[in-house]
Amino acid sequence: MLRLFNHYFPSSAVYQVLIDVLVLFGGILLAAFYVSGEVVSGLTAVVPSALVFAVVMVALSSALGLYGSRRDPSFRDMLARVLLTVLFSVPVAWAVFRLLPWGKAFATLDATVIMLLGGVLLARGVSRRATTSTMWRRRILVIGTGREAASVEYSLTHPHHPGLDVVGFLPVPGFEESLVQPSRVLQPAADKTLLDVARSLEVDEIIVAVRERRGGTLPLSELLDCKLMGIKVLDLSCFFERVRGQVRLDSLRASWLIYGEGFRQGNLRTMVKRAFDVSAALLLLTLTAPIMLLTMIAIAIEDGFPVLYKQERVGQGGRTFKVIKFRSMYRDAEKDGKPRWASANDNRVTRIGRLIRKTRIDELPQLFNVLMGDMSMVGPRPERPFFVDQLTSEIPFYAVRHSVKPGVTGWAQVRYQYGASVDDAVQKLQYDLYYVKNHTLFLDIMVLAETVRVVLTGEGAH
């Protein structure tokens, strides 16, 4: 895994993106040379335009899920993903190609470049399953055999992370009983140090998956020896943050929140985020105005007025505000006055409501909340005060999510399904804490791109 802009990416995906950018960029330069017969002719126009074209096309493909997925795709899933990417990328590529200043001679090669793009996308789709399973692998040794160690293995297999291999589990005397398969537990000779074991297994990383207890002592000096010899050593918090994009509550301490990296705020960061929010909201309102109009008409025809509803939610700093959404439930959905969790198959939802929820059209009016400053484009989803009070009393660190503005979409929304219980709220909070800890403009853009992908592929709901 590589960390870029405070966010972790699979090494294989990063290298694949760079290779495809270079292939597109180099292919375009070769095409230009073929037409003009000279390398220098029109170079000042061709090189910048070719680079911009390659980056934009690969970024679009990445946003549509061609390079990364939270699970190892089947051939059918990979084929569908490639076809969807080609379907969207080729028209956009033609438009981008026409807008960029290529020079007179090169402007006639749009068909050739589009074919080059299609070839790159198809080749990436066909080769991805093979390359992710054989290249850039990291060999991992897990210290511990108890509940935490079992959770590490589960996290690496559900979903499968093809670039990370667990070579075995090393028991630590005095800690809890083994909960992993006996065949996976290592039994090194008594005279072998941890460094000896790691070297013999060609280990790249060590994950410490135990908790300090009486009677059990971690081999700290041996772990230090491994780190000094270039073997990466991670605790549970860092492991889950890197692999799952979560800050796990069961391995979280207040001191880690205080002294650890992240959770940064500041005037410059706030100003940049606000400028991005306003610009993105105005652009989306302009682009989606026809969709919003048709949605209002459809809601009115099925269940009458009002087509919008306002509901009190908790925002930044615990302040309440009125969120605006398209009405997706029947008008008497809570006629008894008791708040209820929303769920994916809620029988209070209308037929139009199911459609606009699945496509997230019901969230579009919240763009006005963004313009008013109550919400951001990306952030933790705002909850109702009734549920906030309940969750704050039951879940540690729940109030941390209110240190930033709530979002129209969020990291938890593109990583987890509907939250319909306290247990679901715990899972989503772990993603929200990751966002609060690592939020940057880059992560916001990535979440918006993920939201587009989720809507287009139907991989998730709110």
Overall morphology: globular
Main sheet record: 4 strands, parallel
Q: Would you list the SSEs in sequence order as H and E?
A: EEHHHHEHEHEHEHHHEEHHEHEHHH
Q: How many alpha or pi helices? A: 16
Number of domains: 3
Strand content: 5-15%
Poorly predicted spans: 130-134
Spatial separation of the terminal alpha carbons: 27 Å
What would the average pLDDT be, to the nearest integer? 80
Widest sheet, order of strands: 4-3-5-6
Q: Tally of extended strands?
A: 10
Q: Roughly how many Å is the radius of gyration?
A: 25 Å
Structural class by sheet pairing and helices: alpha/beta
Descriptive account of the structure:
The protein has 462 residues and is an alpha/beta fold. The protein contains 16 helices and ten strands. It has a four-stranded parallel sheet, with helices on both faces. It has a two-stranded antiparallel sheet with strand order 1-2. Helix 2 packs antiparallel against helix 3. The longest helix is centred in the middle third of the chain and has 37 residues, at 267-303. The chain starts with a strand and ends in a 5-residue tail after the last helix.
